[in-house]
Write a structure and sequence with these properties.
Layout: E1 2-7, H1 11-19, E2 25-31, H2 37-40, E3 42-45, H3 55-75, E4 82-83, E5 87-89, H4 93-107, E6 116-119, H5 121-127, E7 136-139, E8 143-146, H6 147-160, E9 164-167, E10 170-175, E11 178-183, E12 186-190, E13 192-195, H7 201-205, E14 210-212, E15 215-225, E16 235-237, E17 243-246, E18 251-255, H8 270-281, H9 287-291, E19 295-304, E20 311-314, E21 321-325, H10 331-348, H11 354-357, E22 367-369
Parallel strand pairs: 1-2, 1-13, 2-9, 5-16, 13-21
Antiparallel strand pairs: 3-8, 4-8, 5-7, 6-7, 10-11, 11-12, 14-22, 15-18, 15-19, 16-17, 17-18, 20-21
Helix pairs in contact: 1-6, 1-10, 3-10
Bound molecules: flavin-adenine dinucleotide.
């Protein structure tokens, strides 16, 4: 049996680990559990109204959102992990009309959008009682995913499939017949290596002579523990950085920040709290009824590329070194699908670039040799 090591047990790495064919591969996941974006995030799966012009990115995000139907079934995700809660979009009235038109157009290739409806001021408040009466656009197919709960669930599935987990920081060395990975004081040999380490990918691939176009970005979310009956509340996407994400147990998340200069810092800050609460106050009926609730922070580091698009695929061109990163702010939407695509490619031994090219630019746009290794 061939050995596969996955460095990085975030949303890509863990989805990949469970979808690999365990009759063909012996799988190990290594993670140092620091700064992970997935467990800090609680996300909105609703990419259809994005105005980004990158068509490959949109196709990936659209197919990533559609993939949730299969994911929920394959992995038996319950509503504490993923819920098709619907999305409310809050914007000035004129903008909502344009967005409703865009949604109808996008529905032609993405029926998962579901029902698209402009809500009156009163209907909006009835749908999400924390809000002031205001017009909104309701997209019934939108959903929310709790990144941390997703990973815990997948770890249980993976353990049943004999996937091994090692906690520690990995360093890679190339060998003539494969890879040697040093973690803690252990050395592990692997035939195939998958590096799904978020922004940590740069440091991991540097000793192999690769330069990676990726940078870290700090994200902070506020988590309020409330006694509200949030069971059927949709997610609300506000203009700017504030999204309101209610979970069935009364937890309400507010986020997230996009801090480009904070690099790897993971400290919760008062500035983030002020920025996020100020961003949402105008939309709420009684801001204090939320802001006075017990508060905690979730902080993580996202990975960004210069063109804001993710990259994934076979770096080696030989089916021995795979990489995926750069998911930015939409990784909960695209990450599971990327993990699945890589697993499919490994399971079927179809590693050539065309397997991924409809969703991603060539790897060489993001990963280049910095030194001549010959
Ligand atoms: C606050 C916040 C809110 C967000 N909200 C949303 C949202 O609403 N919708 C959405 O779609 N996306 C959202 N995102 C983005 C999304 O969470 C990320 O894009 C996605 O989780 C990235 O997944 P990943 O698997 O690539 O990386 P990660 O989840 O970061 O996993 C990478 C893993 O690699 C490990 N690692 C790195 N280097 C090493 C090493 N040398 N050795 C061992 N392990 C290593 C790290 O510990 C980490 O666990 C949000 C992100 C944040 C931070």
């Amino acid at each position: 049996m061939k050995k596969i090591t996955i460095i990085g047990g975030g949303i890509i790495g863990m989805t990949l680990a469970v979808y690999l064919d365990h009759t063909q591969y012996e799988v190990t996941v290594i993670d140092h559990l620091t700064g992970q974006a997935t467990s800090a995030s609680a996300g909105i799966i609703s990419p259809w109204l994005s105005k980004r012009r990158n068509k490959k990115w949109y196709r990936l995000a659209q197919d990533g959102a559609a993939f949730f139907g299969k994911l929920v079934q394959d992995l038996a995700l319950d509503q504490t992990i993923y819920a098709p809660s619907g999305t409310l979009i809050l914007r000035p009235e004129g903008e909502l009309l344009n967005l409703a038109e865009l949604a109808e157009t996008r529905k032609e290739t993405a029926p998962e959008i579901g029902t698209i409806r402009l809500l009156t001021r009163l209907e909006t408040k009835q749908a999400l009682p924390l809000l002031k009466p205001q017009p909104s656009l309701s997209i019934s197919g939108g959903g929310r995913l709790d990144g941390r709960a997703y990973l815990l669930h997948l770890k249980k599935i993976a353990q049943k499939k004999n996937v091994k987990f090692i906690e520690g920081s990995a360093v890679i060395q190339q060998q003539s017949d494969g890879w040697q990975i040093k973690v803690n004081e252990q050395r592990i040999f692997s035939d195939i290596l998958c590096v799904t380490a978020g922004p940590g990918i740069e440091q991991l691939l540097a000793p192999l002579g690769y330069q990676v176009d990726v940078r870290p970005q700090k994200g902070q979310l506020l988590s309020f523990a409330t006694p509200f009956h949030t069971d059927n509340w949709p997610v609300a996407m506000l203009a700017g950085e504030g999204d309101l994400i209610p979970f069935a147990d009364g937890t309400i998340l507010l986020g997230a920040t996009h801090e480009n200069n904070a690099k790897w810092d993971l400290t919760p800050t008062e500035e983030a709290k002020l920025q996020l609460t100020a961003g949402i106050s105008d939309f709420l009926q009684d801001p204090n009824s939320l802001f006075s609730m017990p508060l905690s922070y979730r902080v993580g580091t996202r990975a960004y590329t210069s063109d804001f698009a993710p990259f994934f695929g076979d770096v080696s061109g030989q089916g021995t070194l795979f990489a995926a990163s750069g998911l930015g702010s939409s990784g909960l939407t695209t990450g599971p699908f990327i993990g699945y695509l890589i697993a499919q490619s490994l399971n079927s031994h179809m590693h050539h670039a065309s397997h991924f090219s409809q969703y991603s630019k060539p790897m060489t746009d993001y990963i280049t040799h910095s030194v001549d290794l010959t």
